[in-house]
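User: I'm new to structure prediction. If I give you an amino acid sequence, what do you actually give back? Let's try with this one:
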Amino acid sequence: MSIFSRPQAIWLVVALATASWAAVGCASTTPGQPAATSSPATSAAGGATGTASPTSPGTSTGVSSTPAQSGTASPSLSGPSSPASAPPSSAPASGTGLAACSTRSLLISVDDTQANGGAGSSYYPLNFTNTSATTCAMYGYPGVSFAAAATTAGQQIGVAANRAAAFVKLTVPLAPGATAHAWLRVAVAQNYPATSCQPVTARWLRVYPPGETVAGYVGHSFSACESPKAPLLTILPVRPGKGVAGTTP
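Assistant: Good question. You get back a string of structure tokens that encode the predicted 3D arrangement of the chain. For your 249 residues, that looks like this:
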């Protein structure tokens, strides 16, 4: 005769089944949570927009080149930099077989219609148009500075442009009539105290095409600093075509 009544037997079966399921559940492992992933950082150019330097509307065209003292141009947007007045003479990158574009074969201009500003600076495209009958090549950085006059006797104003070393140099072939450009960043002179800047108005840019020791000149008004303690100019390497606002070298 069973010692359990029918209701007690049913209860015992249910209890044993429940205990069995609990044991299985304890033995299983809980799935691990996925590792946290970091979203890529978004880079943004800009910040507070500075006041643009005073300019004349349209495109400023360079005048005929005249001999100038040679020097060395300098690096700068990221990394160490030092100012200089002209790049050392050098041939274009190997592989083109083309001669470097000489200053006398280039029409140099600043296109105000494509200028833009941001983060306390304005950006101007320096355009180089091949006016000769033969194809030549440009490679690297122009040498740029403010000048008091469009002659070698014109005093340099402030320090020459630093090179934006973060940008790679490319060889740019220029067929007759073709144009290359380099972006010139001009910091707002009012970013500096007057005592550090010694503010003046510069009316000329002295421009050495890459590898050239003869300068060309472009008439254009800028708020400048005479003091070498207030560097305002940064130059990027040459790229094909005319400079267009919003494009990245």
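You can read the tokens as a compact description of the fold. Here is one thing that stands out. Residues 160 and 172 are 23 Å apart (CA to CA).
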